[in-house]
Design brief:
By secondary structure, this protein is of the alpha/beta class. The chain contains 22 helices and 26 strands. Keywords: Amino-acid biosynthesis, ATP-binding, Kinase, Mitochondrion, Multifunctional enzyme, NADP, Nucleotide-binding, Oxidoreductase, Proline biosynthesis, Transferase.
Length: 758
C-alpha cells in the first residue's frame, strides 16, 4: 500500500506478481512490454509551436518495427498543447488580420501581438489533431493506434483503475498501440512537488510520472524516457567537466547535479529521475535518452532495446568493479606514468612478466584447461578455434622468449629523436616518438595474445584496454593478473585493464573520447564488424588474409612442395596461411604439378578450381564460388596464370594486400614480383607463414595491418608510436621573421643523438 496525495491505494494490480528489473543493458533485448515516453521537447518544434513531424515519424517507425517483432508497445506522449497552440495562433492571427485590415490598414499587421494562450485551451484544440496524426503515421505500417486520456483522479478510484488496466490489456491483446496522455484540457494546475520527495509516493502531475505509473501498473519490462538531453550527467550538461552517467543506481542522487528543466513541458530532469526510480522499484527497467539529436533519433529506441549504450540506464545491480569508462581513464593515467619511466624500468616490467609466464606455468595451464573443457562441452568452437584457445608448455616458453626480445629491443623506443632542425639562431626543433595513448585490443580465442599485446603496450608506453572472448575467460583472467603483478613493481598496475563487464564490442567502439586506437585480433568477420562500428576511432588491422603463392616456370622442384605445404598446412586457421595457389600455365601436366597435387591430397587439403584451371580439366574439383575467399582451413583454390604479370594482376584484383609469395629461381622475375605486388608483405622463395612479428624479430605483434597509413605488415613497438614536435627558443616571435624583420630562417638539419647500442 502506498499513499498518493494522502489517499491510500494499492499501487500494483492485484494479479501482479513481484517483478524484477533487468540488471544489465544486454538483457533489454528480452523486453516484451515497453512504454515509450515522449517529452514535450521531443514532440514539439524548436519554436514550441507545432510538432516536429520528421522526428515523430521516425519514432513511430521504430515503435512499429518493435511492435511487428511481437513486442507490446505503449506510448505516453506530450504535444497536444503545442499542436493546439499552433492551431489557435493561426486562428487568432487570421481573425486579427481581418479586423486590423478593415480598421487600421495593412501597415499595422506586422505589429499585431499574439495574446498569451491558456494551456488547457490549447490542449483541447490540439488533442484531436495530435491523435489523428499518430493514426495516420501508424496506418503506414498496418498498425492500429488507440487514444487514452487520463488524469490524476482516474487513479484514485479503484474501479476506474481496474477499468483502465483492463482497457490497456485488451488493446495490447488485439495488437493495438495505446497512445496515452494526461487530459490537459481538464487537468488542475500543477501541484507542488511535495509528494515527490521520495520514491515511495508518486502522483500524475506530468507525463514522466504518468509513464512511470502506467509502467508499474501494466507490469512493463522497460520504460524509455526520451527528452532533449543525452541522459544524466554528473554536472550540468554543457559544462566542461560534464560526463554522461552510463548506469545510474538507487542512492546515486548525490552524484547528479540537476539543471533547469527542458524548454517546454512540465517535468524537469529531477522529476524524470524520481519517476524512473519509482518505476525501477516497481520492477520496470528504465532508460533516459535523447530523442531530439538528428544523428541518433532515427534509431534511438531500437538501439536501446538492442542493449546498445545509449542514454542512462537505471539498474538496481551495482557491479563490484569499475565501469569501462573508468577503466579507460585509469589506463590513460597509467599509460602516461608508464611513458615517463626510464626505458630500463619498462624493460624490467616485461622481463618480470616473461619470468611469471614460466614460473606460474601450472596455474596458467590449469585455467586454460577449464576454458577448453567448457568450450568442448558447449560444442560451439570449431577445431581451428579450439587450437587457438589451447595453451601448452611450449607455447608459454615461446611467449617468454618473445617477451624478452621485446624488452631488449625497446630501450630507446619512446622519446627517440628522429629529426632535428635549426629553424633559426637559438631556435631548435625536434621530432620525437611518443605513445599513441590508449589502445583497445579485441581478440578471440587466443589467450596467448594477452601477454604479447601487453608487453608491446608497456614497451611503447601506451595504456591498454583488453577485451577477450568469453571462451578464454579463465586463461585471460590469470594472464591479466600476472601482467598487473609485473606492472606493480613500479606501481602502475592500472596501465593494463581487462574489460570483464558485459560491454558489447560495438559500445566499446563508441568511446572515441577515451580510446585512441582499436586493434582487432580475430576472424575477418570480427574485424569487419569493428571497422563498421568504430565511431571516430582509427582501426588497425586487416579484414581478410587472402594470401597467394605463385609458382613460376623457373621454380625449384625441391622448394615448391616444401613452401606450399608449410604455407597451407602448418597452421591453416592463421591469417597468413596460403588461400590461393597460382600456377604458371606451362607447369600444367608436368611432374612438378603432379607432385603439388599429390602433396595436397596427402595433407587432406580440399582443392577448389579457379575458372581458368577448371577449363583445362575434363573432371575438375569443385569450381570456386569466389576468388576472394579466406578458407581458414585445409582448403585452397588453384588458378592458372600465363605470366608473372598476370599473377600480379590477379593478386591486385582478388587479394587482400596481406602476404604474397613467388617461388622461382629467376632473380629478374622475382624482383619484378617483389617490386610490383602492392601488399604489406611480399616474399621470394619463403613461406607465407613468415609474416609474423615474432619471426620478423619484433618479439611479438599486435596484429598485421593492411592499411596504407601509419603502420603496415606485422605491427610491433614502432607501430604503436606516433610523434610530437618540441621547439626550444629564446624570446622568438614570428614577426621577427617578416620581410623587414631582424631574423632569417635557417632550416638546417642537425645530427641525431647516438642511439643506445644495446
Amino acid at each position: 500500500i502506498r499513499c498518493w496525495s494522502n489517499i491510500p491505494f494499492i499501487t500494483v494490480p492485484l494479479s501482479r506478481a513481484h517483478g524484477k528489473s533487468f540488471a544489465h543493458r544486454s538483457e533489454l533485448k528480452h523486453a516484451k512490454r515497453i512504454v515509450v515516453k515522449l517529452g514535450s521537447a521531443v514532440v514539439t518544434r524548436g519554436d514550441e509551436c507545432g510538432l516536429a513531424l520528421g522526428r515523430l515519424a521516425s519514432i513511430v517507425e521504430q515503435v512499429s518495427m518493435l511492435q511487428n517483432q511481437g513486442r507490446e508497445m505503449m506510448i505516453v506522449t506530450s504535444g497536444a498543447v503545442a499542436f493546439g497552440k499552433q492551431r489557435l495562433r493561426h486562428e487568432i492571427l487570421l481573425s486579427q488580420s481581418v479586423r486590423q485590415a478593415l480598421h487600421s490598414g495593412q501597415s499595422q499587421l506586422k505589429d499585431m501581438a499574439i495574446p498569451v494562450l491558456e494551456a488547457r485551451a490549447c490542449a483541447a484544440a490540439g488533442q484531436s489533431g495530435l491523435m489523428a496524426l499518430y493514426e495516420a503515421m501508424f496506418t503506414q505500417y498496418s498498425i492500429c493506434a488507440a487514444q487514452i486520456l487520463v488524469t490524476n483522479l482516474d487513479f484514485h478510484d479503484e474501479q476506474k483503475r481496474r477499468n483502465l488496466n483492463g482497457t490497456l490489456h485488451e488493446l495490447l491483446r488485439m495488437n493495438i498501440v495505446p497512445i496515452i496522455n494526461t487530459n490537459d484540457a481538464v487537468v488542475p494546475p500543477p501541484e507542488p512537488n511535495s509528494d515527490l520527495q521520495g520514491v515511495n509516493v508518486i502522483s500524475v502531475k506530468d507525463n514522466d510520472s504518468l509513464a512511470a505509473r502506467l509502467a508499474v501498473e501494466m507490469k512493463t519490462d522497460l520504460l524509455i524516457v526520451l527528452s532533449d538531453v543525452e541522459g544524466l550527467f554528473d554536472s550540468p550538461p554543457g559544462s566542461d567537466d560534464a560526463k554522461l552517467i552510463d548506469i545510474f543506481y538507487p542512492g546515486d542522487q548525490q552524484s547528479v547535479t540537476f539543471g533547469t528543466k527542458s524548454r517546454v513541458g512540465m517535468g524537469g530532469m529531477e522529476a524524470k529521475v524520481k519517476a524512473a526510480l519509482w518505476a525501477l522499484q516497481g520492477g520496470t527497467s528504465v532508460v533516459i535518452a535523447n530523442g531530439t539529436h538528428p544523428k541518433i533519433s532515427g534509431h534511438v529506441i531500437t538501439d536501446i532495446v538492442e542493449g546498445k549504450k545509449v542514454g542512462t540506464f537505471f539498474s538496481e545491480v551495482k557491479p563490484a568493479g569499475p565501469t569501462v569508462e573508468q577503466q579507460a581513464e585509469m589506463a590513460r593515467a597509467g599509460g602516461r606514468t608508464l611513458a615517463a619511466l626510464q626505458p630500463e624500468q619498462r624493460a624490467e616490467i616485461i622481463y618480470r612478466l616473461a619470468d611469471l609466464l614460466t614460473d606460474q606455468r601450472e596455474e596458467i595451464l590449469l585455467a586454460n584447461k577449464k576454458d577448453l573443457e567448457e568450450a568442448e562441452n558447449k560444442g560451439r568452437l570449431a577445431l581451428p578455434l579450439l587450437k587457438r584457445l589451447s595453451l601448452s608448455t611450449s607455447k608459454l616458453n615461446s611467449l617468454a622468449i618473445g617477451l624478452r626480445q621485446i624488452a631488449a629491443s625497446s630501450q630507446d623506443s619512446v622519446g627517440r629523436v628522429i629529426r632535428r632542425t635549426r629553424i633559426a639562431k637559438d631556435l631548435d626543433l625536434e621530432q620525437v616518438t611518443v605513445p599513441i595513448g590508449v589502445l583497445l585490443v579485441i581478440f578471440e580465442s587466443r589467450p596467448d595474445c594477452l601477454p604479447q599485446v601487453s608487453a608491446l603496450a608497456i614497451a611503447s608506453g601506451n595504456g591498454l584496454l583488453l577485451k577477450g572472448g568469453k571462451e578464454a575467460a579463465h586463461s585471460n583472467q590469470i594472464l591479466h593478473h600476472l601482467t598487473q603483478e609485473a606492472l606493480s613493481i613500479h606501481g602502475i598496475r592500472d596501465a593494463v585493464q581487462l574489460v570483464n563487464t558485459r560491454e558489447e564490442v560495438e559500445d566499446l567502439c563508441r568511446l572515441d573520447k577515451l580510446i585512441d586506437l582499436i586493434i582487432p585480433r580475430g576472424s575477418s568477420q570480427l574485424v569487419r564488424n569493428i571497422q563498421k562500428a568504430a565511431k571516430g576511432i582509427p582501426v588497425m588491422g586487416h579484414s581478410e588474409g587472402i594470401c597467394h603463392v605463385y609458382v613460376d616456370t623457373d621454380a625449384s622442384v625441391e622448394k615448391v612442395t616444401r613452401i606450399i605445404r608449410d604455407s597451407k598446412c602448418e597452421y591453416p586457421a592463421a591469417c597468413n596461411a596460403l588461400e590461393t595457389l597460382l600456377i604458371h600455365r606451362d607447369l600444367l601436366r608436368t611432374p612438378l604439378f603432379d607432385q603439388i597435387i599429390d602433396m595436397l591430397r596427402v595433407e587432406q587439403v580440399k582443392i577448389h578450381a579457379g575458372p581458368k584451371f577448371a577449363s583445362y580439366l575434363t573432371f575438375s574439383p569443385s569450381e570456386v564460388k569466389s576468388l576472394r575467399t579466406e578458407y581458414g582451413d585445409l582448403e585452397c583454390c588453384i588458378e592458372v596464370v600465363d605470366s608473372v604479370q598476370e599473377a600480379v594482376e590477379h593478386i591486385h584484383k582478388y587479394g587482400s594486400s596481406h602476404t604474397d609469395v613467388i617461388i622461382t629461381e629467376n632473380e629478374k622475375t622475382a624482383e619484378f614480383f617483389l617490386q610490383h605486388v602492392d601488399s604489406a608483405c611480399v616474399f621470394w622463395n619463403a613461406s607465407t607463414r613468415f609474416s609474423d612479428g615474432y619471426r620478423f624479430g619484433l618479439g611479438a605483434e599486435v596484429g598485421i595491418s593492411t592499411s596504407r597509413i601509419h603502420a603496415r605488415g606485422p605491427v610491433g613497438i614502432e607501430g604503436l608510436l606516433t610523434t610530437k614536435w618540441l621547439l626550444r627558443g629564446d624570446n622568438h616571435v614570428v614577426s621577427d621573421f617578416s620581410e623587414h624583420g631582424s631574423m632569417k630562417y635557417l632550416h638546417e638539419s642537425l645530427p641525431l643523438p647516438q642511439r643506445n647500442a644495446n
